Amino acid sequence: MSPRDDETPRRGTQPRRGSSRDLPAEEPEETPGRRNRSSIGDARAYTPRGRTVAERGRLPRSGRTTDPFRPALQVLDGGETPPRVRGRGRDQVEKDEPATTAARRPEKERDKAVPRTKESPAKEGRARAGGASPRTGKDRAEREREAGRGAGPRRRPPARSGRGRPDDRRSTEKRVPAEPPKLANSTRRLRLGTVLALSLFVTIGVRLVVLQVATSPDEAESLLALRERRLSTVELPAPRGSILDSSGAVLAHSVEARYVYADPENAGLQKNIAGTAAKLAPLLRVPASELAVGMERKQSLGRWLKFRYLARGVDVGIADKIDDMELPGIYTHTDERRDVPGKDLAANLIGFTGDDHHGLEGLEARYDELLHGTDGKRVFEVGKGSLNVQITGGYEQYTAAKPGNSLQLTIDRDVQYEVQRILDAEAEKKKATVAGAVVLDARTGEVLAQASYPAYNAAKPEDSDAEDRADVPSSVVTDPGSSHKAFIFGAALQEGVITPDSTMKIGPGLERGGYPFRDTHPQDPGTEMTMPGLLAYSSNVGTILIAEKLGKEKVYEYQKLFGLGQATGEGVLGEADGQLLEPSQWSGSAYGSVPIGHSVSATLIQMAAAYGAIANDGTYIQPQLIKATISGADGTVTPAAAPKTHKVLDPQVASQLRTMMEAVVDVKGGTGGAAAVPGYRVAGKTGTGKMLTDGQYTSHNASSFIGMAPAENPRYVIAVSMDVATGGGGDVAAPAFSEMMSYALLHYRVPPSGTKPPTFKIHP
Fold this sequence. Notes:
β7 and β8 form a beta hairpin. The chain has 26 helices and 28 strands. Among the domains are: about 1-150, no CATH class; about 235-405, Alpha-Beta Complex (Penicillin-binding protein 2a (Domain 2)); about 480-645, Beta-lactamase (3-Layer(aba) Sandwich). The strands form nine sheets. Strands 5, 6, 9, 10, 13, 21 and 22 form a seven-stranded mixed β-sheet that branches. With about 775 residues, it is an alpha+beta fold.
């Protein structure tokens, strides 16, 4: 049964063993008329064994261990931790209290402590709620009275002397031993560890700076030299991109091969260089003396070379035989060899590569950076002397090679083959020194074929002369001759100087600047001729008279509009610009020579592109050889940029000019009769000029024919030129043009002309 509020708790005569040393020996009496208040801490003051945690005033018995969890369960009074009295027991605290406070303490508290009865913790908590403080022994009412009195004289505690004992020597109570020292501070340990770690990093950083900056150049050089002597480098050639035709057929590509190299620092190789070279010579087809030179020790940039090529592009089978021989210091590695399946097919256009897989001529040189890719390398650590092999687990660096991109041309392999075959045959027949041919798509400007004579085998370029490897259509410059007259007639039609029905009186010749100009088909003085008749007979006199009506400024203007005087930019390496005579530079004879295609120089590709403007309804299209590029990494196809275009003639004027040019082929006695193609209307013009070599004219004739078909709606333009001792364009080049155009029209299945050419009159 719970005690009443006015009932004093029953306690024993002796405190319980294990009571808290911070609590007084006896509980204070409850304040009459006031219900004691308790806290949760007081309610939990007992351990499961029934002892309070806050009983700290007594020493544990000898031979017993204290409960390690009791300090953590200390009872708080009023939510605050009571002050700890170090080195003093309960009796000492009472002695240190002021006398007034001791006098006010109830009689029970001043008496000897009475042991608590085994009341429930809840009852004891209620009893303590309004009772004495566990540490001071004062009840709450008394503490509040003291606080209300304010400031007043205070009694000093008894003075201490000696080793901290009170002066009152009469006390016989045993001293409470000092508490154990506190554990080390974790924050200090963390700070100390941080300082040590930072100091270590600073030391390492300073050492690195010293090694990088303070090391003398001689020391650094010696370290690098030591490293270089232990490292061996092997080059890894990048796979070179292919050159393809418009359909994707291979014109040039790389195939798998091997390269053979020597390590001159190998001790075994140095002992028997002559014997090793003699064994390799028959397999590599290289003189033994040349191989021996490659095996000798050699310095480069102050260090001994450990890698020297002996042969490249070696067949895989031969390389396997060399590996089986196990010759000291002789090794093979993956390589590639440039293969040209067509041998001489478009060889002058494509070009070739060197032993280092870099382009030397033609498109191989022009687009070398795109085709070559990026070489890789392998660097590894080797031993010394007879152990000059890679150290297992040693230093090794591998940089993979990046393959080059492929180049797709506008060239049609089938058309190229046929055009080249016809050109070779006609050039041989006419005993030409050089010859060239170009086939253009009139609507797109794409070059479908570009052939040169003589040709060579691109797989074995060393067997040919440098002059024979030139691309004739883009590098050989000639006077266009009478093929230039089409530009004068076109300009005159565009400017309204003449019409298709105009007539002109001419004679057998005329003189300009003291130089005579005559016709190959001389006419009597005062002979009247039609415009188609002047073109059919290639009249020099009639063309000069028309040009004089235009004026030299207009002649020069239309020359530039037709693309003369500057490279076309079709994509060939080293394309020539040609040359025009500016109006300010015209002499008296220039009024006669320029209109008929002299004092003017141009390449065959320039002339073909100019005739392309006539075929394409008066719009000039820049010729192009490159159709697309193909990525070597992922095969992405990137089309070439669109060609540049500009207007030269009105479509109606271009059509009138084409019709007039048909007379060259259709009129009996015309200069281009040999260029006719059965079933198709052909428009074109012959030309006979001179080839320029080192700025000087040769004694030969640069005979040409440039035309288009079908004339009513042209699809293709073909230009043929040959340098021959005698003969004009109608006799030399026109027959080759006829064969080439006939093949192209049939190959691309162009329907024959649905209409017949008009009937031309030479004289009105």
